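S.,

Sequence below, as promised.
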Amino acid sequence: MPTTLRRGSNDECMRIRWVSITSALTLYLRGLSLVPLRPGALAALTVANLDKQLGVLTVGKDKAGRDRRIKLPAATSAFFAEHAKNKLPGAPLIARADGKPWDKDAWKKPIRANRESSQLVRRHHGIRNAS
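The prediction came back faster than expected:
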């Protein structure tokens, strides 16, 4: 017998939370596919790292240990500008559903669930290498 969800039930709340997590994760993975950054470097970006007028992203935290500037194609710049809209300079450029920056503990479970259910994303590190 199928179960029905009552408005405000725990099951409904968990599903709504999962949808918001996966939607935010989709944006994060899309960002990884657009720029040649490691997952932690993308997660560390704030709105202040994006120069919307010049279409340049300044990456300060990366494995190399030094700042670098990436000139973005117009479509990529528009993607990041859309996610920077109406945010303070210190806010994460691509945030989780709760507004906090991504970290390995936040993306680990949703990526694993995606991998197990669809086999489409094997490792998010591979997305960076494909861009």
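The domain at 10-130 is CATH 1.10.443.10 (hpI Integrase; Chain A).

Coffee later?
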